[in-house]
Amino acid sequence: MSKPNEQMLQKELKNNIEESIEQMQNGPARVNQLLRPSLVSCSEKEKTITIGYPVQEWQLNAKDVMHGGMIAAAFDLAMGLLAIHFNHQKPVASVNLSLNYMRPIPHIRWEEAADSFCRVPFEKQWPAYKHSDRYLCGS
């Protein structure tokens, strides 16, 4: 594929994801909007997306760590954004979502931490997610 064509496809992916997030943010208050996603990076060539999410107070369980359902929702949203793009902007729905939780994601005050990140490979199966004190990552 030629370099100009690759750049055009990359720009289209970025624009589609940004538009989808903007539409979500301007819509009614639903869980996807409340997660406050933001596009960190994407690659049309690798078919990947990285979405940032702040770990918010309302997402915590009784042990002050991010609730597993919120982690699943973050992955589901990121995968959905990418899948919609590669499905020619047609809606998609998750049929099955399976996660292996390796360790908790602690509550980090917004002003002290970077966003949590969810990196989603579109066509590859990932074995688990990696965790640091500041990021949630799938690879």
Question: Which characteristics define this entry?
Answer:
139 residues; three-stranded antiparallel β-sheet; Thiol Ester Dehydrase, Chain A; alpha+beta; 5 strands; 34% helix; 3 helices; 17% strand
Describe this structure in words.
By secondary structure, this protein is an alpha+beta fold. The protein has three helices and five strands. It has a single domain, classed as Thiol Ester Dehydrase, Chain A, CATH 3.10.129.10. The strands form two sheets. Strands 1-2-3 form a three-stranded antiparallel sheet, covered by helices on one side.
How does the helix and strand content classify structurally? alpha+beta
Numbering strands along the chain, what is their spatial order in the largest sheet? 1-2-3
* Count of strand segments: 5
Helix % is: 25-40%
Question: Major beta sheet, specifics?
Answer: 3 strands, antiparallel
Give the low-confidence spans: 110-117, 122-139
Q: How many domains would you count in the coordinates?
A: 1
Shape: elongated
| H/E series | HHEEHEEE
Strand content: 15-25%
Radius of gyration: 15 Å
CATH class: Alpha Beta
Overall residue-averaged pLDDT value: 80
User: How many helical elements?
Assistant: 3
| Termini gap | 25 Å
The CATH superfamily is identified as Hotdog Thioesterase
Q: At CATH's second level, what is the architecture? A: Roll
Question: Care to give the gist of this entry?
Answer:
The protein is of the alpha+beta class. It contains 3 helices and 5 strands. The protein has a single domain, classed as Roll (Thiol Ester Dehydrase, Chain A).
